[in-house]
Specification:
It contains four helices and three strands. A hairpin with a 2-residue loop joins β2 and β3. The longest helix is centred in the last third of the chain and has 21 residues. It is about 55% helix and about 20% strand. It has one domain: Winged helix-like DNA-binding domain superfamily/Winged helix DNA-binding domain (Arc Repressor Mutant, subunit A), CATH 1.10.10. The protein has a three-stranded antiparallel beta sheet. The chain has about 80 residues and is an alpha+beta fold. The radius of gyration is 15 Å and the shape is elongated.
């Protein structure tokens, strides 16, 4: 999610390589995020080769911001005074 939040869209290959995941493992994660409505997946062709790209949806971006805000709140609460 953080990679997609920092970019308009990323290819499956870019995500796989950056995360060091197998194709099957990444597919499972993308499918789960897609089912929650957090990620959109587009399939096309580039240079006669299949290209799968992923992007955060508005709901995905909102959920990610809420998650970051929660983490910041936890850090603030546990910071020594």
């Amino acid at each position: 999610m953080s990679m997609l939040a920092a970019s308009p869209e990323l290819s499956f290959t870019e995500l796989r390589d950056a995360l060091g995941m197998t194709d099957g493992n990444l597919t499972t994660h993308i499918r789960a995020l897609q089912q929650e409505g957090y990620v959109s997946v587009a399939k096309s062709y580039q240079n006669n080769r299949p290209l799968t790209t992923c992007a955060l949806t508005a709901a995905g971006r909102k959920a990610f911001v809420e998650y970051i805000n929660l983490l910041e709140q936890i850090v603030r609460q546990n910071k020594p005074k």
